């Protein structure tokens, strides 16, 4: 993990050299040299980290490198803090001529002093690095790992254990019956061409167990002449895999000759032996696409009905392994399946003790359907006395890790396979609470503010961050929790993986999390971690924090008033980049942020969600690096200060805003929500060249003019548009939106009769549409189904007042998500064969219980059907 920390600091050093060149010019060479030295040290870190478990000296060496990296970041951040302070002082001089003279002296002399100071500190850091380099050579640390092979032998033992157990059939298999039945059909179907079946999902989910069940099936034994099983893992050699496959197929070759064969000879031998025969090969635990690519030449595809099963944690490997492939995403166990599996491991056939059953269910629920966790938990508790169960429940993940080397090994494999950027992102997601989901948008903005993301190619940082989150999803390290309007809205990190993230983050002083239960809430010394998170049950105590804290997140506070600590936070934690405060209790008497907030000049992310705040101090304009300002509340309108336009780095502005909107100069603004139509029409939208998401609300029911899209047409980069009108307002022509080719997501709350006829010609790229209070009398489906790229459609309350709705044969060719909610008059809905061929998510909550659901949809939504992955018919199921 230290490699990720050092890489992050090296990246920051490069940014400072470029962005702060004016202030660093006299020490620029020293900073560049320090960056170069750290880059050289980084070359040895990854190898050293792999060896540090087995050697105290290497562990100390790696720890010292980490501290140098952190200290380097601190030196530069504190220097920039002083520079900002001097600039602020110079701007306050009143007399022009005196100001010029004094400013020059103050700024020049002050800068010289600070440059001398930073030069000395950088020199000290360089000496420390030189000393570490000398120690590495003197103690021959690079040779230690070669002499001590304990860890590598341990890993090999684990790999061997996995290989051996791959051939043994587990007797107790719970929750995989439907998956096994469906995949068995794929293996046995009468299709002569070779088919690859990919099974993917999180580590410990049962991919190998499912593959074993198929491998040992009696019908499979009878169908395939040859069967072979090989485990790949992260480190593999193609020639070694080919030899093991040949042995597993029981192809008879002299052992000595097999070892001498080249890769080409092995391929030729395997190909000739399998030619004209039906075979089943299981390629288990694949991490790279290249693994199967390097093997497939040796497997003939000669219409013999052969099959290959690949198991992997990575979606890209599963989906792109072959031209003819069937991908099966393995699900988590349902609560009843988890409990059954647990009982088989713990109670077997005996009756369940009531008290132990209650504790057991609590712990099984925490496993969240992960079979490996349930099995290990069951095995652990089966050896515990009843009085010890409580202790296991209170520290469940610690007990599971200690009891099973499999869990730590399996989960750490996934972490170690990540790039340093993905490691930082994964660890950071540990800030979100246990047993809770988190919003993707929030995670993305935090990752950007923390500095973990850099712009790449033509993508803005938010798109890069979204790509990183998607990659963690595809690697089965986080799970999608909810999809809204065709887009992933919330995710969840399994508690076992979250515990891994917290553990590794704490090891390198990356994050400290205080929850009042599993983690300490009192300490005589400040936390050494750069990021501090306090959950509801943990008391916020200022000595936890130190001057070097970069992030402070306070969740759902119900003790103390934010007013009591806000000034202290703003004056003492001057290096903060992230300040997040959510849902303080009713005792909060805070109507404005303190004037001292302007001292947090490094701040990039500010979220204060307290219901009574209604105005901002003028000092907010000092936060020149601010990217996200989120002060949303349902209850009060917030007025922005006139100088808000000076925050040129602002990218996301969120709140219920009243008063003037002096935002014309915010050219980096990407998100603006929520504002009234009356305020919006006074803005000059043509200057908001990067605005991507806009939410408008029409609060004035007295004004009867229709909403026109002319101002929206000036937003060339708009992607998401939400316009909520009062019931007396309507929309005019969509024609101006023809100038918004990137518009993908639109919410319209109001009368839209005039819009429907031209929607599919004006908005061909629209992917998501939500309608509410449209009051349509004519069936909208014949027009909406023509939208060629529509993925998500919501017909909400009062959007349609007719009794009948028809989806025609070729309609909605790309629709994935459909929600029909509270259409009171709807009685008949006809869906012709061939309509909505891509539908996966369907929710129907009709206001009229007479509505008849089409039989085709009913069959697709049946419990054993794999067509619809999410469906809800409240009056049917």
- What quaternary form is this? single chain
**Count of domain modules:** 6
How would you describe the shape? globular
CATH arch. level architecture of the largest domain: 3-Layer(aba) Sandwich
Which ranges are low-confidence, i.e. pLDDT below 50, for 5 or more consecutive residues?
Answer: 94-113, 147-151
Q: Could you give me the name of the CATH homologous superfamily of the largest domain?
A: P-loop containing nucleotide triphosphate hydrolases
For the record, give the distance between the C-alpha atoms at the N and C termini, rounded to a whole number.
48 Å
Write the layout of secondary structure elements.
Elements: H1 2-19, H2 21-24, H3 28-51, H4 56-91, H5 96-138, H6 141-147, H7 150-165, H8 177-188, E1 195-200, H9 207-215, H10 218-223, E2 226-231, H11 238-248, H12 255-260, H13 263-274, E3 279-286, H14 289-295, E4 307-312, H15 315-319, E5 325-329, H16 335-346, H17 354-366, H18 371-381, H19 389-394, H20 396-403, H21 405-416, H22 420-428, E6 438-439, H23 440-450, H24 461-474, E7 479-484, E8 487-492, H25 495-507, E9 512-514, E10 531-534, E11 551-554, H26 562-572, E12 578-582, E13 605-609, E14 628-630, E15 638-639, E16 652-654, E17 657-658, E18 671-676, H27 677-680, E19 693-697, E20 720-724, E21 745-749, H28 759-762, E22 768-772, H29 781-784, E23 792-795, E24 804-807, E25 817-821, E26 828-831, E27 841-845, H30 855-860, E28 870-872
Parallel strand pairs: 1-4, 1-5, 2-3, 3-4, 9-10, 10-11, 11-12, 12-13, 13-14, 14-16, 15-17, 16-18, 18-19, 19-20, 20-21, 21-22, 22-23, 23-25, 24-26, 25-27, 27-28
Antiparallel strand pairs: 6-8, 7-8
Helix pairs in contact: 1-3, 1-4, 1-22, 3-4, 3-5, 3-6, 4-5, 8-9, 11-13, 16-17, 16-18, 18-20, 20-21, 22-24, 23-24
């Amino acid at each position: 993990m230290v490699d990720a920390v050092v890489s992050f600091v090296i990246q920051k050093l490069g940014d400072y050299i470029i962005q702060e060149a004016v202030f660093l010019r006299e020490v620029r060479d020293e900073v560049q040299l320090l960056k170069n030295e750290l880059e050289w040290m980084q070359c040895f870190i990854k190898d050293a980290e792999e060896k540090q478990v087995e050697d105290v000296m290497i562990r100390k060496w790696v720890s010292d490198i980490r501290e140098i990296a952190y200290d380097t970041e601190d030196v530069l951040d504190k220097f920039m803090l002083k520079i900002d302070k001097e600039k602020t002082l110079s701007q306050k001089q009143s007399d022009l001529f005196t100001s010029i003279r004094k400013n020059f002296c103050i700024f020049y002399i002050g800068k010289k002093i600070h440059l001398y100071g930073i030069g000395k500190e950088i020199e000290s850091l360089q000496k420390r690095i030189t000393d570490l380099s000398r120690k590495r050579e003197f103690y021959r640390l690079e040779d230690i790992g070669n002499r001590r092979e304990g860890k590598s032998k341990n890993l090999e033992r684990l790999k061997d254990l996995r290989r051996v157990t791959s051939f043994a059939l587990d007797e107790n298999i719970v929750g995989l019956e439907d998956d096994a039945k469906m995949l068995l059909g794929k293996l046995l179907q009468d299709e002569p061409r070779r088919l690859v079946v990919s099974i993917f999902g999180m580590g410990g989910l049962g991919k190998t167990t499912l593959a074993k069940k198929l491998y040992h099936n009696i019908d499979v034994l009878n169908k395939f002449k040859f069967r072979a099983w090989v485990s790949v893992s992260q480190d593999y050699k193609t020639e070694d895999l080919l030899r093991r496959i040949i042995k597993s197929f029981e192809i008879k070759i002299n052992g000595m000759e097999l070892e001498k064969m080249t890769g080409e000879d092995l391929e030729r031998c395997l190909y000739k032996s399998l030619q004209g025969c039906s075979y089943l090969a299981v390629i288990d635990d694949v991490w790279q696409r290249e693994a199967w690519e390097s093997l497939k030449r040796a497997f003939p595809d000669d219409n013999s009905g052969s099959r290959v099963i690949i198991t992997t944690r990575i979606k890209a490997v599963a989906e792109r392994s072959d031209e003819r492939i069937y991908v099966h995403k393995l699900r988590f166990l349902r609560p009843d399946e988890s409990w059954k599996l647990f009982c088989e491991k713990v109670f077997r056939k005996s009756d369940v003790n009531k008290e132990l059953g209650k504790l057991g269910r609590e712990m099984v629920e925490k496993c969240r359907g992960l079979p490996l966790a349930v099995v290990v938990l069951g095995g652990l508790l089966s050896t515990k006395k009843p009085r010890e169960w409580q202790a296991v429940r209170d520290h469940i993940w610690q007990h599971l890790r200690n009891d099973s080397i499999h869990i730590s090994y399996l989960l750490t494999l996934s972490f170690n396979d990540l790039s340093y950027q993905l490691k930082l992102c994964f660890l950071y997601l540990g800030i979100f609470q246990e047993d809770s989901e988190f919003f993707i948008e929030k995670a993305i903005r935090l990752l950007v503010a923390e500095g973990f993301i850099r712009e790449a190619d033509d993508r803005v940082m938010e798109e890069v961050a979204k790509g990183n989150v998607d990659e963690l999803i595809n690697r089965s390290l986080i799970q999608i929790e909810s999809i809204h309007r065709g887009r992933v809205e919330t995710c969840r990190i399994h508690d076992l993986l979250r515990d891994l993230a917290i553990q590794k983050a704490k090891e390198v002083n990356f994050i400290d999390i205080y929850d009042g239960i599993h983690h300490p809430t009192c300490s005589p010394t400040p936390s050494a971690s750069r990021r501090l998170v306090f959950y509801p049950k943990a008391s916020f105590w200022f000595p936890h924090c130190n001057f070097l804290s970069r992030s402070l997140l306070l969740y759902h506070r119900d003790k103390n008033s934010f007013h009591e600590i806000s000034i202290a936070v703003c004056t003492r934690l001057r290096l903060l980049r992230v300040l997040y405060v959510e849902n303080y209790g009713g005792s909060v008497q805070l109507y404005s942020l303190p004037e001292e907030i302007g001292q947090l000049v490094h701040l990039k992310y500010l979220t204060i969600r307290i219901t009574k705040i209604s105005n901002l101090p003028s000092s907010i304009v000092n936060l020149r690096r601010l990217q996200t300002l989120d002060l949303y509340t349902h209850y009060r309108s917030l007025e922005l200060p006139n100088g808000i336009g000076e925050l040129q780095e602002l990218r996301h502005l969120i709140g219920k805003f009243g008063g003037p909107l002096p935002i014309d100069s915010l050219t980096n603004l990407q998100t603006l929500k929520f504002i009234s139509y009356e305020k919006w029409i006074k803005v000059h939208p043509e200057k908001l060249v990067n605005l991507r998401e806009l939410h408008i609300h029409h609060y004035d029911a007295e004004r009867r003019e229709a909403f026109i899209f002319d101002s929206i047409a000036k937003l060339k980069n708009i992607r998401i548009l939400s316009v909520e009108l009062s019931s007396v307002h309507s929309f005019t022509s969509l024609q101006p939106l023809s100038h918004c080719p990137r518009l993908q997501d639109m919410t319209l709350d109001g009368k839209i009769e005039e819009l429907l006829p031209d929607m599919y010609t004006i908005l061909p790229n629209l992917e998501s549409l939500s309608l509410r209070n449209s009051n349509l009398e004519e069936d909208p489906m014949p027009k909406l189904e023509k939208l060629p790229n529509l993925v998500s459609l919501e017909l909400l309350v009062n959007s349609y007042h007719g009794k009948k709705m028809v989806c025609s044969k070729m309609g909605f060719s790309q629709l994935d998500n459909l929600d029909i909610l509270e259409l009171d008059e709807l009685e008949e809905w006809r869906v012709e064969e061939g309509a909505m061929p891509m539908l996966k998510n369907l929710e129907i909550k009709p206001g009229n219980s007479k509505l008849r659901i089409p039989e085709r949809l009913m069959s697709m939504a049946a419990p054993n059907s794999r067509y619809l992955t999410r469906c809800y018919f409240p009056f049917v199921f």
